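__Protein archive entry__

___
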Amino acid sequence: MRKVFKEKWLMGLIATVLAVFVIQGSSVALDYPKKKIELVVAFNPGGGSDILGRAVAQYGSKYIGETIFVTNRAGGAGAIGFNYGAKAKPDGYVLTFIVTTLTIAPHITKGYPVTYKDYEPIALVAVVPSCISVLADSKYKTLEDFIKAAKANPGKLRVGQAGTGSPWHLAGEALAHAASLKLTYVPYKGAGPSITALLGGHLDATITSASEIFPHVQAGKVKTLAIIAENRFAAMKEVPTTLQLGYQANVVSWRGIAAPKGTPKEIVDFLINGFEKVSKDPEFLKLLESRGTDLKFIKGEAFGKWLAMMHKDYGRIAKMAGIALKK
């Protein structure tokens, strides 16, 4: 009897000790955050990254339980802001709104100071696919029409894009490679001027994000021939993807959240949990839809693997385009 009592007493003691550790562990996890959290946007106010970053900060504050404020640290093709965020103290109080540039610039910009490897991945939030579009009254009614004309006139079709090394330039190169085309690219300072040139009749086609061209499609001025991505664009579900048409071209613009390398796992997990709730918030989803942006939520380690894949893919396309740094 005494032996049984002793065993029960010992088991009770172990259970109590374990409970204390669990409670203490929870209290440590809940000790964050204690103050406002900075979300670094590596580009100027008013752009796509800034607008979505501020929305993520607004809804993130709701679920993280503390104010998340945005600071714009622009310059050097995102290098200034990305580098600042990566080198910040890894305590969870400086996060970075990382975007497509982070997986392109290191391949084409000498001395670019940061890569996705310098961060703890928290979550991918959204993607916008690239697409190829022509005027609504263009003789090119389908992607096949455009490809046939490009093959019959190598280098003669003028295609607008938002600057050398932009996602839309890489999208054009990926499509050209997949379809064995030779195109003449006309670089502009952003997708807006490229679209304006198309509307003015100065281009045969333009490659932009689907969200940027969508208002002109709605207005009946432009026709999108294909989404240069794996999945169709929600706002233009009738438009096929290049993969569906048999061309292995897949380029998207993406947006996500990361913390400095070395941020404690319990803080990273806490942030992942909070931003996962943001991804399910009906108002946030409505905001994404209004901006022509598709939700794509990937968290933690899976997001890290996705970043590695994108980094590799964009490096391959940059090399194919002849703009990659020589190693």
Remarks:
- Residues 40 and 96 are 5 Å apart (CA to CA).
